Amino acid sequence: MKIDSLYTILIPSHNRPFDLNRLVNYYSKLKCEIIVCDSSDKPLDYAGTYNLLYMYLHGVSFFNKLKKGLAAVQTPYVLLHPDDDFVSILGLRKAATFLHENSNFVSVMGQSIGFVKNNKDVNLMLRNTDQYLALLKMKPSDSSTVRMHNSLTPYSQTVWTLHRTEVLRQFVHADISWFKSACLYERFFSLFFAIHGNTKFLPVFFCARQFENLIEEREQDKFNYTGPGTVLFSTEYKDEIGKMCKVLAAEMVRLENIPEEDAYVKIQSAVEQYKKTFHSNRHNFTNSKIDRFFSKYNPDKILAKFVKPIVVSNDRWGKSFFFQKNKLPCYRTSARDEIKNIVSIIRNDLKN
């Protein structure tokens, strides 16, 4: 069995032709199905591109793009892929292998390295390190209540990774057209999947994620941004949060055959527990904890320790750890080669 035949890459895109072309070229030699759902103002021409299904869906919402794309997926697993990221091909294959061998898990993710483009070069960083602690502790025997709590505390963004296609289809069939907050949508996604099963964190390099100039962005939005960590506290989205809990309760009733009232209590309990622990857990992750974390959970020494990460600041996502110029984390040679290749692609972009 060829592992690439088990998954499809699904890329929703909107008005990012440069990033999308770069991504299609990056995966040009990968022998798996790739589906692009593009709602841009103008269509792109990918005629003759190997294993690529291009769906031009002008003006279609993100949620409906997922529905259209998933309808065309014929593999048991699907990678939801932003149009400006790079996913490790080696990491993706390891994730697909894990899902194939572990039926109690519904999603798999791995270590993300962020990159920020400036006028001259590319800065690498590691972000949201603390979110992996809960994911690593997940066990097949965990109840849905424990899984929901772990998906919230600390915050774990699990949208853009590899999922079981059948669960993702059930997610998009839920009536959530009323969502206004993208961050609340992320929390709903994580909770929905937690009801179905566990999300696995593999201590391998999985993707390089692009961030904007965070310092400038932080100055612009620090007073008005309702981020993923605080959206469940927001009175602005009180009605949406109530609707979200009802949808989740209905899904739990369907899967666990329990009374709706009991399901609703479980979901409310997970949310309330998160609210109680949020402020005490926020921004308490130190360098020494990070070193111990990767030493303990990484027996293969893929990320034994960092090369002198520099704590930049506490921002809305948590702490940002930038690496010293021209140095990378201690990955195995194969992963380091992938990172260097991605950095090379980005540097070429800066020259053009």
Write a concise synopsis of the structure shown:
The protein is of the alpha/beta class. It contains 12 helices and 11 strands.
Q: Could you characterize the architecture of this molecule?
A:
The chain is of the alpha/beta class and 352 residues long. The chain has one domain (85-351). It is 43% helix and 20% strand. The protein contains twelve helices and eleven strands. It has helices at 17-26, 62-71, 89-101, 131-137, 144-152, 165-172, 182-196, 214-221, 238-256, 260-281, 287-297, 333-351, and strands at residues 7-13, 33-38, 52-56, 77-80, 86-87, 105-117, 122-127, 162-164, 198-211, 310-315, 318-322. Strands 1, 2, 3, 4, 5, 6, 7, 8, 9, 10 and 11 form an eleven-stranded mixed β-sheet that branches. The relative contact order is 0.13. Mean pLDDT is 77; it is low at 213-225 and 281-331.
Main attributes?
352 residues, alpha/beta, 11-stranded mixed β-sheet, 11 strands, 20% strand, globular
- Radius of gyration, CA atoms, in whole angstroms: 20 Å
Based on Cα principal axes, name the global outline: globular
Head-to-tail CA distance between termini: 41 Å
**In percent, how much strand structure appears in the residues?**
15-25%
Structural class: alpha/beta
What do the pLDDT scores average to? 77
- How many structural domains are formed by the residues? 1
SSE topology sketch:
Elements: E1 7-13, H1 17-26, E2 33-38, E3 52-56, H2 62-71, E4 77-80, E5 86-87, H3 89-101, E6 105-117, E7 122-127, H4 131-137, H5 144-152, E8 162-164, H6 165-172, H7 182-196, E9 198-211, H8 214-221, H9 238-256, H10 260-281, H11 287-297, E10 310-315, E11 318-322, H12 333-351
Parallel strand pairs: 1-2, 1-4, 2-3, 6-9
Antiparallel strand pairs: 4-8, 5-9, 6-7, 6-8, 7-11, 10-11
Helix pairs in contact: 2-6, 5-7, 5-10, 7-9, 9-10
